[in-house]
Specification:
The structure is a homodimer of 321-residue chains. By secondary structure, the first copy, chain A, is an all-alpha fold. In chain A, 74% of the residues lie in helices and 1% in strands. Chain A contains 16 helices and two strands. Chain A has a two-stranded antiparallel ribbon. In chain A, helix 9 packs antiparallel against helix 15 and helix 15 packs antiparallel against helix 16. The radius of gyration of chain A is 20 Å and the shape is globular.
Chain lengths: 321, 321
C-alpha cells in the first residue's frame, strides 16, 4: 500500500516537474501567428506518460536527472507535434475536450505549429550531456517510424483487406516506436549497453502495442467524457482497428460495417456485435498479452526498480480513458 | 576566364555529387503512401544553391568533405521540407513546372512527407563527425527561425500597415536564416571560432536578404517559363513584398492594389506602376546593397577562396529565374 502511494507520488512529481518546465520554455511573443498556437498546444494538461517513462527508465540506471528532464520534455514535444499534425490529417476537431489546433487557428498555422514544436524538441534533446548524438539519432529514427505508422494508418483507411499482421505493424510504428524511444532513452542516458537498450526498446514497443489495442477498444467502449476526443472519428474515417479486423471473420459484419446508418447508430451496432461475437474479449486478451510480454523485459532492472516499472506498466493499461 | 570555367565546373561537380547522394538515400518502398511522395519531392532537379554554399564555405576551412556532404544533404532536405509545407500553406499548385506534393498526393500525405523529409535531414546531419552537436543545434535554431519567417509572411498577408523594417525582418528569417546556416555550417565543420562563424552567418543572412528581394522582383518581372512556379500567387494572396511596400508611398497605388481586376491584369498594372514610379529600380538597388554587404564579410577567407566566394555571390544574384 505504501509502495502504491509512493509510486503515485513519484508520478505526480515527474508530471508536475514536466509541466513546470514546459511552462518555463523560453518562447517569444512574436510572431503571434506562431507562438499563440504553440502556447495553446502546450497548455493542455496531458498525462505525460512519455516523459514519465523516460524518467522511470533512466532512474533505473542512475542517469543524470537534468538529462532525463531534457529528454522527457523532448518526447512530450514530439508527441504533441504528432498529435497536432495527425489531427489535421484525421480531421479531428477536439482533443482532451479542447478544440484541436487546426480547428482553432486554421490548418496553415497548425502545420507550422507542429513543425516548430518538433524543432523545439530537437533543440531540447540536443542539450543532454551524455551520449548526445546517440540520443538524437534514436529520437529521429523513432520520429521517422512514427511518420511511417501514420502513413500506414491513412493508407489502410477503408481497406478491408488489411491483415492482423499489417495492423500490428502499423500500431508498432505509430504508437510503439515512441514508447520504445522513451524506454530506450533511459538506457542511452544511463550509458547502458546495446543489449540493454534493445531490451528497453522491446519493453516500450510491447507496451505501445498493448496501449494502442486498448485505445482502439476505448474508442468504441468508453464514454466521450472520459476519452475527451471525438469518439466516432475511427468509425467515420473507416479506420482499421483491432476490432474491425477481428470482427471481419464473423458472419454479419459486412452488413454492419457497410450500412448507411448514421455514425452514432453504426457505432452502437458495432459495439453490440463486438460483445456478442467475443471480439471485445479477444481484443482485450491481445492487449493484455502485449502488456505481459512488456513485463518480461523488465528483468533488466534491479528488483526494487522492477517493481516500479511493473506498476507503471499496469498504470498505463489501467486507465478508463 | 579559366577561373570562371573552373568555378562553374566546381558548381557542377558539387551539384552532381549532391544529386547522386540524394538519389542513393536508403529509402524503403513501403509505406507507398509516404515514400512515393518523398521520392517525387526529391526527384526534382534543384539548383542546389544551399548545399553548394555549405561546400564552398567549408572548403575555405579545410572541413572534412564527408561532413560537408552530410551537411549539404541535410540543408537541401530542410529546404525541401519547408517548400512542401509552404506550398500547402500558400496554396501553390506548381513549383519548377511540376505539381506540388499536396496537389499531386493530397494535403495529408504532403504534411507527412514534409515531416519525414525534415526528420531524414536530422538523421543525416547527425552523421557529421566534427562538432556534431554544435552543427545540430545550429541546424535546428535556423529551422525554427525559418518557421517564424513563414509565420510572419502569413500573418502579414493583406496587412498594408507592414513597414519596410518588418518586411526585412520577415525575409531575414524566412530566407536569410537558411543561407546563414549553410555558410555557418562550413565554419562549424571546419572548427572555426565563434567570431568567424558569426561573420559567416552575417554573409549568408545578407545573401539571403538580397536573394529574397530579388525573388519578389522576379515574381512580377520574370516570365512564367523561367520562374517555373505560379507567378501570380503573391498577388493573389495579397502578400507583402518589397515592391508593394515601396509602392505604397506613391500616389495611385491604392487604386491598383485594391482593384477588382483579374489577377493577370492586376499584375500587369502593378508591373507598369513599379517601373513608372522607380520602385523596381529602388528594389533592385536594395537587393544589390545586401549582396555588396554580404561580400564585405568574405574577407575571412584566404584570397584565392575569397574569389570563389565572390563568384558564388554574383552567381546567386545573376539568375534569370
Amino acid at each position: 500500500m505504501s509502495d502504491t502511494k509512493s509510486f503515485s507520488e513519484l508520478l505526480d512529481f515527474i508530471r508536475s516537474e514536466t509541466d513546470s518546465h514546459l511552462g518555463k520554455l523560453d518562447l517569444p511573443e512574436e510572431p503571434t501567428y506562431l507562438y499563440d498556437p504553440i502556447r495553446y498546444a502546450l497548455a493542455g494538461k496531458g498525462k505525460r506518460l512519455r516523459p514519465i517513462l523516460v524518467h522511470l527508465s533512466g532512474r533505473g540506471f542512475d542517469a543524470d536527472p537534468d538529462d532525463l528532464m531534457y529528454a522527457g520534455l523532448a518526447v512530450e514535444l514530439l508527441h504533441n507535434f504528432t498529435l497536432i499534425h495527425d489531427d489535421i490529417m484525421d480531421h479531428d476537431d477536439t482533443r482532451h475536450g479542447k478544440q484541436t489546433v487546426h480547428k482553432k487557428f486554421g490548418t496553415e498555422a497548425a502545420i507550422l505549429t507542429g513543425d516548430s514544436i518538433f524543432t523545439l524538441a530537437q533543440l531540447i534533446i540536443g542539450q543532454v550531456q551524455s551520449n548526445t548524438v546517440q540520443a538524437l539519432q534514436a529520437f529521429n529514427k523513432a520520429s521517422l517510424t512514427v511518420c511511417e505508422g501514420q502513413a500506414y494508418d491513412l493508407q489502410f483507411e477503408g481497406d478491408s483487406t488489411v491483415t492482423l499482421d499489417k495492423y500490428l505493424d502499423m500500431i508498432s510504428r505509430k504508437t510503439g516506436a515512441l514508447l520504445s524511444l522513451c524506454a530506450e532513452l533511459g538506457g542511452i542516458l544511463g550509458a547502458k549497453s546495446d543489449d540493454v537498450c534493445a531490451e528497453l526498446r522491446s519493453y516500450g514497443l510491447n507496451l505501445g502495442r498493448g496501449f494502442q489495442v486498448q485505445d482502439d477498444i476505448l474508442e468504441i467502449f468508453s464514454d466521450k467524457e472520459n476519452l475527451g476526443k471525438s469518439l466516432e472519428s475511427d468509425v467515420a474515417a473507416d479506420k482499421q482497428t483491432i476490432l474491425t479486423i477481428l470482427a471481419r471473420k464473423h458472419d454479419g459484419w459486412n452488413e454492419i460495417s457497410r450500412s448507411d446508418a448514421d455514425i452514432s447508430t453504426k457505432r452502437e451496432r458495432m459495439r453490440s456485435f463486438y460483445i456478442e461475437t467475443g471480439v471485445e474479449v479477444r481484443a482485450r486478451e491481445i492487449s493484455q498479452g502485449y502488456i505481459d510480454k512488456a513485463k518480461d523485459s523488465l528483468t533488466i532492472f534491479e528488483d526494487d526498480h522492477k517493481i516500479t516499472m511493473d506498476q507503471f506498466t499496469d498504470f498505463v493499461l489501467n486507465r478508463t480513458h
